[in-house]
Each structure stands twice: as structure tokens, then as C-alpha cells.
Amino acid sequence: MASNLIHQHQHQHQDQDRQWLLNCLTATLDPNQDVRSFAEASLSQASLQPGFGGALAKIAADRGLSLGLRQLAAVLLKQFIKKHWQEGEDSFEHPAVSVEEKEVVRRLLLASLDDSHRKICTAISVAIASIAAYDWPEGWPDLLPALLKLIYDQTNINGVHGALRCLALLSGDLDDTMVPTIVPVLFPCLHTIVSLPQTYGNYLRTKALSIVYSCTSMLGTMSGAYKAETTALMAQMLKPWMDQFSVILQQPVQPEDPDDWSMRMEVLKCLNQFVQNFPSLTENEFMVIVGPFWQTFVTSLKVYVQSSIEGEENPYDGRYDSDGAERSLDSFVIQVILWWHL
Predict the structure, then answer these.
(1) Which of 34, 37, 81, 145 is most deeply buried (CB count within 10 A of its CB)?
(2) Which residues fall within 8 angstroms of residue 101, CB to CB, at 6 or more apart?
(3) Which ranges carry the Importin N-terminal domain (predicted)?
């Protein structure tokens, strides 16, 4: 009986804390400066209490709440991670997050990566990448398996998007000790996405290619003992990728399809890295690309002439995807011409 009452009291207390936090987050969006300032000061004080990170993660993960509040919670969580996650870092401030709370935050964020709202998905990905900078791979060994599991689940395209968004952020920060262990697991998975346009679509295929580009760029910076290892690694993977690049470049460039241009741009960037970093390997496979590249070159100029020269205005100018990457026809054509001069 007593234990039930205690449990009930704790539950009520948690509900009150959660409601207080929701009210505070709402008040930070208030048009009144005084209300905002008081709410921000209250949140700053609350961030020093145990469980604050977990409470923010629960709000960010709660699909029943408004998008604005969830996004704000995820942004504040990222700031909280920077200050309190890792002792010894320049940005660290006491108190440190407990091991138990870290586990809760990591679990909630991973479970939210398949959110259907792009902005939430991006905010969650950024928070995961912030934690990964401190914990991964040693302190978070199940991160990569969890992301790969999401990617392989073709029934949940939102999960594929979230995992790729997260991997794109992680791949920008890989060091030369991690790449050789990750690439053999990651590249076959990314190749599956790129080679199945009916399932994944050009937007997700482009995301997958951007990760290939980041990893290949890092492979190219390695030297000495790592160099032989990475060359051996790429020797097995080069042909399937070159074949896939040929398939993409062989198709005529589509007008009014920025996702198509973005994907081809990523293909050209990847090819550039392959040629620069693994010339001896690429040489044998290169002839496969020449015809398809010429097809892209000719048809892209045709689309460009139609829109920019014969058209009244360029309807494709200044477009960006949901992650902020430019998708204009100009930037694509410049990339094609630069590659032709390589």
C-alpha cells in the first residue's frame, strides 16, 4: 500500500515537472521580452538539475506535442549535451550527466529518427551526432547497427531518411581509424539504396551518395600502413559503384527535377574522389563511365539552354533541399563542365 502511494506521488511529481518544462518552453516563444527572459533564466537553472536532459529528450520524442515545442526541446538538448555530457571538454560545465540519464537520452533519440517531420528528424539527427562525437564508437557500440537496421527496413522510409541524415553528419567527422572499419559495413548498405530508385527515390539516393563522398574523401587522406589497407578495401567495392554511376549518368537529364541534378552532382563528386585517391584502381573501370558521362553532359546543356537562354527566367534558380544544400541548375551544370575538364 505504502509503496503504491510513493509510486503514485512520484508519478504526479514527474507530470508536474513535465508540465512546468512545457510551460517554460512555450514561454520562451512569447512575444513579451520579460516573459521570454524569465523563461530562459528558469530553463538555465533547471539545466543544472538531474534528469533535465532526459526530460528534454522525452519532449523532443513525443509525437503528440506541437512541432515548435519538440524542435525547441531538441535544440536545447544539443546545447545541454555540449555543456554537460563530457567532462574534460573545453565547453564542459558542471554537473555531468549520469550514466543512466545518458542511456535514456540515447534510446529516446534513436527511437525518434523515423519521425515523419523533416525538421524534427534533422534536429534529432544533430543531437545524436553531438553525442556520437563524445561516445561513439567505444561508448555507443550499438549506434551504427541501429542506423543500419533502420536503413535496411524498406517498409519505413522515414526511418531510412533519419538514419541517412544522421550518417551524413557522422561521416563528416570520421577519423582515419574509424573509416576502415565502417566502410565495409556501410558501403554495401548505401549501394543497396542507390541501386533501388523505385524504393528509395532520388532524394534518399543523393543522401546515400553524399556519405560515400565523405568516406572516400577521408580514405584519400590516409597514407603509410593505412594506404595499402584502404586500397585493398576499395578494390572490392569500386566496380559495383562505377557500374551504378554509369546507370545514373546514362539517363537523360530531366528538366524541372532538382533531385535528379543533385544526385548526379554527388555522383560526379564521388567519381572525382575515386580518380584522385585511387587512380590505379579507377583506370581499369574508367571506360565504363565515359559514354554515360557524355550523355549527362549533352542532355544537361540542352536543359540549361532551354531554361536559361531560351526561357524568360531560370525557374530552377536558388533551390535548396531540406538540409540546406543548393540544388540549382547552374550549380549542376558548373559541376558537369568542371568534371569534363578533369
Answers:
(1) 81
(2) 50, 51, 53, 54
(3) 39-115
Q: Are 186 and 180 in contact (CB under 8 A)?
A: no
Distance CA 183, CA 117 (A): 29
Q: Which residue blocks in the chain are alpha helix, DSSP H?
A: 2-27, 33-46, 52-61, 67-84, 99-111, 118-135, 143-152, 157-171, 179-194, 197-220, 225-250, 258-277, 279-285, 287-304, 329-340
Report the b/e string of 152-175 with b at 16+ CB within 10 A.
Answer: eeeeeeebbbbbbbbbbbbbeebe
Instruction: Give backbone dihedrals phi and psi of 326, rounded to 5 degrees, phi first.
Output: -70, 140
Picking from 17, 15, 86, 4, the residue whose alpha carbon sits closest to that of residue 51 is 17
Task: Tell me how far apart the alpha carbons of residues 122 and 256 are, in angstroms, rounded to a whole number.
Answer: 26
Residues 15, 189: Cα–Cα separation, whole Å: 42
Residues contacting residue 61 through CB under 8 Å, at least 6 positions apart? 70, 108, 109, 111, 112, 124
How would you class 16 by CB atoms within 10 Å of its CB: exposed for 0-12, middle for 13-18, buried for 19 or more? exposed
3-state helix/strand/coil string of 79-125 = HHHHHHCCCCCCCCCCCCCCHHHHHHHHHHHHHCCCCCCHHHHHHHH
What are the boundaries of each domain within the chain?
50-173, 177-342
Judging by beta carbons within 10 Å of its beta carbon (0-12, 13-18, 19+), is residue 141 exposed, middle or buried? exposed
CA 75, CA 50: separation in Å to the nearest integer? 19
Phi then psi for residue 320, to 5 deg, are -130, 150
